[in-house]
Amino acid sequence: xxxxxxxxxxxxxxxxxxxxxxxxxxxxxxxxxxxxxxxxxxxxxxxxxxxxxxxxxxxxxxxxxxxxxxxxxxxxxxxxxxxxx
Length: 85
Description:
By secondary structure, this protein is mostly helical. Helix content is about 75%, strand content about 0%. The chain has a domain at about 1-30 and about 60-85.
């Protein structure tokens, strides 16, 4: 009984990882790597550092929250199944 539960947990985690990679590729998350390479070298003025960036909660925020919720639900279900035996 112990091994099948962990196999389900492993399969769920693998499926979520694949879905995240597919989402990232479709939304061009891996584009513009040349620009990202130089970002640590760009200096900000004191005024720019004092300004707080606006909070943007777009589709990526909700996708990450959905992934976290799915992981938490999978973890709880696994623990319930394991502790019930």
